[in-house]
Write a structure and sequence with these properties.
mainly beta, Methylamine Dehydrogenase, Chain H, four-stranded antiparallel beta sheet
């Protein structure tokens, strides 16, 4: 019999609520089909809606958070990856990677207003209501676009590095941080002048950031390295490397600032990391290939976009604080077993080859992952 909370449990059908094992530190609420390769999520708390950027469907799914149903699909540019909502104007912003633009949607009418051109392959964005600025990381352009939230005009294009994407802002220090996936680095800028004030080398595959301003710290995900870097924002240096589940890609800070949530694309889970202790408190199972993650301000539930299962998971973290026992990640069932037989096309000759052709030899397998 499957354990409660597993996705093949008949007590947890897609789109439905689920019971809970009283010993569990988490609860699964729903898993809602959205579109192809969902990535970013934004919440309209006033209307109780979630907006999910479905990158391979070229649209945003609008989910009613009371009924857990998709009520609208809004066409955007090609490959919307990240998404954000400005409550003051009621505008939704999507970073459309293959259209080199940001699409602007009216959250009340659910209609597209306009699109703003940015740099090459925008893959990350964030906004600061007090600054009235939208910051967009352009991965192929190696730049950061800065857009006025009210006029929708681009006020600056700032040099970054290859793979520029996720952006974090510390209003206390007037600091903007752009993380660069390909360069495995982060650039630090003055939020008013956009002048670079520092640079930091990080782990491989830097792709998400969350800031805890009262501690003067940023938590930055290094996907390929499988770590989260704790960064001192005053000294601009890494003070700790925290291990998570396999292939972490997304991160958000809990509103209480006592923990951060990290989505593990390879493990199909969300790591709960203590801010003060840097310890992984638990891992919450979600859908396949999780990426974008946000916390619903209404009820504290966690919303996760699952690129691998084309769904959005809604789960609850039931931990009041650090548990007495540390999390122990289950070892891979493949460890200690023989490599299964497979066949791939040889890059040079084009011939179909099996792994037995290279037995006892070293060879390279080239995988491409859509982040």
């Amino acid at each position: 019999m499957a354990a409660i909370g597993e996705r093949d449990d008949p007590a947890f059908p897609v789109g439905a609520a689920c019971r809970i094992d009283s010993r569990s530190p988490w609860r699964q609420i729903a898993e809602i089909p959205v579109g192809l390769d969902p990535e970013g999520i934004a919440i309209d708390n006033a209307r109780r809606r979630a907006f999910v950027a479905c990158s391979r469907s070229d649209f945003v799914s609008v989910v009613d958070l009371e009924t857990h149903e998709v009520i609208r699909e809004i066409a955007t540019g090609n490959e919307p990856i990240d998404i954000g909502l400005d409550e003051q104007t009621g505008r939704i912003f999507t970073a459309d990677a293959h259209s080199d633009q940001v699409t602007i949607i009216d959250s009340a009418t659910l209609e597209v207003e306009t699109a703003v051109p940015v740099g090459g392959y925008p893959s990350g964005l964030t906004h600061v209501p007090d600054f009235r600025r939208l910051y967009v990381g352009n991965s192929l352009g190696s730049t950061m676009s800065v857009i006025d939230l009210d006029t929708l005009e681009t006020v600056a294009t700032v040099d970054a590095e290859p793979g520029a994407g996720a952006i974090g802002v510390d209003q206390t220090r007037n600091l903007v941080v752009c993380v660069n996936f390909v360069a495995a680095s982060a650039n630090f800028y003055d939020a008013e002048t956009f002048e670079e004030v520092g640079r930091l080398e990080l782990g491989i595959g830097t792709c998400a950031i969350g800031i805890v301003p009262e501690r003067g710290e940023a938590f930055i995900v290094n996907s390929i390295a499988g770590t989260v870097s704790r960064v001192d924002l005053d000294k601009i240096e890494v003070v700790e490397e925290i291990r998570t589940g396999s292939a972490p890609v997304g991160l958000t800070v809990h509103p209480s600032h006592d923990r951060v949530y990290v989505t593990n694309r390879g493990a199909g889970s969300v790591s709960v990391l203590g801010v003060a202790d840097g310890v992984e408190w638990s891992q919450i199972p979600v859908g396949g290939g999780p990426g974008g993650v946000v916390v619903d301000p209404h009820d504290g539930r966690i919303l996760v976009a699952n690129a691998g299962s084309q769904t959005m998971s809604i789960v609850e973290d039931l931990l009041a604080g650090r548990p007495p026992a540390p999390v122990v990640e289950e070892p891979s069932p493949w460890i200690g077993n023989k490599l299964p037989a497979f066949a791939l096309e040889d890059y040079r000759s084009g011939e179909r080859r099996t792994n037995h052709d290279w037995a006892e030899k070293k060879y390279i397998l080239n995988f491409f992952a859509s982040w």
